[in-house]
């Protein structure tokens, strides 16, 4: 993917790593090694692999913007969503650490932690009743996050107005 983009465009100015693969909601004690492998490999390792493929040409040009989409779950956890939360916390920490490594090379690295989107996923997932009530209340109040909300945050982080925003995790959640 990176090789083809470089052949076609000559450079990559912006990388947005956006992956979100859910694992079956269940208590940690009931989770399996296969579920952990899938959750970590999809949600964390994919971000690392794409970044590693793009980063050398950004470093050589001394320019670039990287935005990694994490999740509010990576900041505060989610009941019965430990695997997802741990992987997304890894994305946040990776972003902060990499930002320190490459800032002197003119590369900005940040992450975004979206909150819940109004997509009704909770109707099929096995979340605790109090968590489902919280989600439904947010939906009723119009406080769930839309793709446009996340896109606006990405646009800000890749623009020149954020040139001094480095290693931050921007929470876009509609709640505290």
What coarse outline follows from CA principal-axis ratios? globular
Give the fraction of residues assigned to helices.
40-55%
Reading the helices and strands in chain order gives HEHEHHEHHE
Termini gap: 37 Å
Strand content: 5-15%
CATH class membership? Alpha Beta
Based on the structure given, which CATH architecture is correct?
3-Layer(aba) Sandwich
CATH-defined fold name? Rossmann fold
Largest sheet: 4 strands, parallel
Keywords:
about 180 residues, alpha/beta, Rossmann fold, four-stranded parallel sheet, globular
Entry summary:
This protein has 176 residues and is α/β, with parallel strands linked by helices. It has six helices and four strands, in the order αβαβααβααβ.
Task: Give your account of this protein's structure.
This protein has one domain: NAD(P)-binding Rossmann-like Domain (Rossmann fold, 3-Layer(aba) Sandwich), CATH 3.40.50.720. The mean pLDDT is 90. It has a four-stranded parallel sheet with strand order 1-2-3-4, sandwiched between helices. The chain is built from six helices and four strands. It has helices at residues 2-9, 33-61, 73-76, 82-102, 129-140, 147-158, and strands at residues 14-17, 64-69, 107-114, 169-172. Helices cover 49% and strands 12% of the residues. It is of the alpha/beta class.
